[in-house]
Design brief:
Elements lengths: L3 E2 L7 E8 L3 H12 L4 E4 L7 H5 L4 E2 L4 H6 L5 H11 L6 H22 L4 E2 L13 E3 L5 H14 L4 E2 L3 E8 L2 E8 L5 E11 L8 H7 L17 H8 L4 E2 L4 E8 L4 E2 L3 H4 L3 E3 L13 H9 L5 E7 H7 L3 H8 L3 E4 L2 H8 L3 H15 L21 E13 L2 E2 L6 E3 L5 E7 L19 H21 L1
Parallel strand pairs: 1-8, 2-3, 2-10, 3-7, 10-20
Antiparallel strand pairs: 4-6, 5-6, 8-9, 9-10, 11-18, 12-13, 12-17, 14-15, 15-17, 16-17, 19-20
Helix pairs in contact: 1-6, 1-15, 4-5, 5-15, 13-14
C-alpha cells in the first residue's frame, strides 16, 4: 500500500493539527499548540505513550535556565552550541545547533512556569563534551518519569491523546498534507483530516533494512530503542519531496548490561572507570563519549566488554534507577582485588591486574596512557573493584527530515512543504553524520527544542 494516498471523499473527523507520536517531541508540540489555542489531536500507535523517551535516561541538556541560575552555574546558549559543534567536528548543521541551543533553555523554563515540571540540575559529574553542568532531569531521573509528567501536562490542557492509533499512511494533494489514515487494533480504519501535521514519531532504528542502508556499521548491533521506530516519518517525507540530511548519524551506547538489557550510566566511565575486553585489556579512550564507544565495544571478541569501577563510583551509579535495576538483577560483580574480580568475571587475572595497575599509576602521574586518556583529572581507582558485563547497542538514528527555524519540513528542491512539521527523531538532529558526533543528551535536546518550534509553527500555519 502507498504511504501517500489521495484524500477520501470525506473524513471521519477533522481537526486543526494532528501530532503523530506521543513522546517528548509530540507532547511538547501539543503543549505549544494548546497555548496557541489550536485544536489538536495526538495519535499514538502504542496502548500507552512510551517510545524512545520512556527508554531514555530522561536527561536534557540546556543552557541559561532557571535551574542553572539556582545552582550558581554560569552558562549560555552560545557556549552550548559551541560544544555541540565541537563534538560533531563541524560536520553537523551549525544552524540547527544554534537553533537547538537557544531554544531549549526557554523551553524548559516555560514547561516549569506554565506546566509545573520540576527540573533538577545534575551536578555530580560533568558529562563528556559539555563545558558546563547543563543536564536537567525531573525528580524521577528517568525517561518514564519525564514522559509521565509531560503527559499529565497535556491532559491538564485538555489535549486528547488517542492511543492504539497507528498512522499507516498520509493523505495529501501535491505537497499539501490533508490528513492521516489510522489503523486501530481491531483492524478498523479511520480517516482523520487536518490543517497541519506534526511528525514526532521518531527515526528508523527499528528497521533493519534502513539501518543497513544508512548506518551499515550498526547493521548487526543490538537495537536498544523502541521497535516502532520504523522510519515512517522519513519515508512519508521523502514521498512528499522532503529534503533529508545526516542519515548516517546515530546514537550508539557502549554500556548496556548483557544479557540483562539495562543501560549502565556512562558516569562510571567519565568519572574514572574503565572498560576491558575478554582479554582483560583496555581497547579505547573511555573519556571520549558513549556513542562512539558502541562501535569499539562491538568490535571486541563476542561484542562484549566489562565496565570496571570501584566503591566511589558504585555509590555514584546508585543514584540512577537503571543502575539499581541492573544491580538488583545480579549484573554487578565484586572482587576484593583485581585477581578476585577477574575470577568472578572469568577474565585473565594477570592481564586485568596489569591493566588496573597501569590506570592507577597514570592517575598518580606515572607514565602516559597508550590510548590517550588523561587519568590525572580524577581519583585513582582503588579496591574493592566491581564489574558489569556490557555490549554496544544502537539507540536511535540522528538524521532525518530537514526543517527550518519553525520546524517546517524543507523540500528537496529548496522550497518548503506548506503544512508539514517534524521534530525529534523524525527531523535532522544536531549530531552530524557520524556516531562520534553525538553529544550527551542530543536526542532529547532535539525532541523538546524542535517539538516546541514545530508546535508553534503548526499553530501559525493554521492562522
Amino acid at each position: 500500500m502507498s504511504r501517500i494516498l489521495p484524500p477520501p471523499d470525506r473524513f471521519d473527523l477533522d481537526v486543526g493539527v494532528l501530532v503523530v507520536g506521543a513522546g517528548a517531541a509530540g507532547m511538547v508540540a501539543a503543549l505549544r499548540l494548546a497555548e496557541a489555542g489550536a485544536e489538536t489531536l495526538v495519535l499514538e500507535r502504542d496502548p500507552r505513550p512510551a517510545g524512545s523517551t520512556a527508554m531514555s535516561s530522561g536527561f536534557i541538556p540546556a543552557a541559561g535556565t532557571a535551574a542553572q541560575a539556582r545552582a550558581g552555574v554560569a552558562d549560555s546558549a552560545v557556549a552550548f552550541a559551541a560544544d555541540i559543534r565541537r563534538k560533531n567536528g563541524g560536520h553537523g548543521d551549525a544552524r540547527l545547533a544554534d537553533l537547538a541551543a537557544r531554544t531549549i533553555g526557554p523551553t524548559l523554563d516555560w514547561l516549569a512556569a506554565r506546566h509545573g515540571l520540576e527540573w533538577e540540575l545534575l551536578t555530580d559529574f560533568l558529562y563528556p563534551g559539555h563545558s558546563a553542568h547543563r543536564m536537567h532531569a525531573v525528580p524521577e531521573r528517568n525517561g518514564a518519569g519525564l514522559l509521565a509528567r509531560l503527559g499529565a501536562a497535556v491532559a491538564a490542557e485538555g489535549v486528547p491523546v488517542a492511543t492504539g492509533a497507528h498512522v499507516t499512511a498520509l493523505y495529501a494533494r501535491g505537497r499539501q498534507v490533508l490528513g492521516a489514515r489510522v489503523t486501530r487494533p481491531d483492524g478498523r480504519i479511520e480517516a482523520i483530516g487536518c490543517g497541519a501535521l506534526v511528525l514526532a514519531c521518531s527515526g528508523y532504528g527499528g528497521d533493519r533494512d534502513l539501518v543497513a542502508r544508512h548506518i551499515p556499521a550498526m547493521a548487526t548491533a543490538p537495537y536498544f530503542g523502541h521497535p516502532g521506530n520504523r522510519g515512517d516519518a522519513l519515508l512519508w517525507g521523502q514521498a512528499l519531496g522532503a529534503a533529508v540530511a545526516d542519515l548516517s548519524g546515530c546514537q550508539g551506547h557502549g554500556s548496556v548490561a548483557h544479557p540483562h538489557g539495562v543501560l549502565i550510566t556512562w558516569a562510571l566511565m567519565s568519572e574514572g572507570g574503565i572498560q576491558v575486553n575478554a582479554e582483560g585489556r583496555r581497547f579505547a579512550d573511555e573519556s571520549r563519549g558513549y556513542s562512539e564507544q558502541a562501535l569499539d565495544v562491538l568490535a571486541q571478541p563476542g561484542g562484549i566488554a566489562w565496565c570496571v569501577f570501584d566503591e566511589r563510583l558504585l555509590e555514584l551509579a546508585r543514584a540512577f534507577p537503571d543502575f539499581r535495576t541492573a544491580e538488583s538483577a545480579g549484573a554487578v560483580l565484586k572482587g576484593a582485588n583485581a585477581v578476585s574480580l577477574a575470577r568472578a568475571a572469568g577474565l585473565p587475572a594477570g592481564a586485568l591486574a596489569e591493566t588496573l595497575g597501569a590506570c592507577m599509576a597514570h592517575a598518580q602521574g606515572r607514565g602516559r596512557d597508550r590510548l590517550g586518556r588523561d587519568f590525572t583529572i580524577g581519583p585513582a581507582l582503588a579496591p574493592p573493584f566491581y564489574a558489569v558485563r556490557v555490549t554496544g547497542a544502537l539507540f536511535h538514528s540522528q538524521g532525518g527530515l530537514r526543517i527550518d527555524d519553525r520546524g517546517r519540513v524543507l523540500a528537496a528542491d529548496g522550497g518548503r512543504l506548506p503544512n508539514l512539521f517534524a521534530a525529534g527523531g523524525a527531523a535532522q538532529g544536531v549530531s552530524g553524520p557520524d556516531p562520534a558526533g553525538y553529544l550527551s543528551g542530543n536526542g532529547l535536546l532535539s525532541a523538546m527544542a524542535f517539538g516546541a518550534l514545530a508546535g508553534q509553527g503548526a499553530a501559525a500555519a493554521l492562522r
